Amino acid sequence: MTKQPPDRSPRTVDCPPPPDGCAATAGEPCLSHGGTRVRHSFHQARTAAWEAARIAAVPAANLIFDAKARRGMHGKDAAELLDKNGYSVEAEQLRRAVSEAHGHMSARQAIAFLVDHAEGGEGQ
Ligand SMILES: [Zn+2]
Question: φ, ψ for residue 37 (rounded to 5)?
């Protein structure tokens, strides 16, 4: 048995029912052509559901996601928001990431960063 990395793809959630998706259950691939052919990718709605679930699982990411002023928010502001709400560790990680990105980070990217980090991804 080779060691498999944990599945980090939309496959881990259900695909929404048609017309948005194919109603594949978690663990099953997406199907097309009336269920006769396995898709190499996932339905957009399934990817969206998966992303929402990942964000919901990370309180700090969820906080930014729920922020009323998220539209146009900068990564630096997102870190500030985390700090104000008691997520000082996450805020510090985010500040470091923003500085490594030379200040180029949106709130959306900040959410992705927090989610990846929470899942143990020690990215560069
Ligand atoms: Zn599908």
Answer: -130, 135
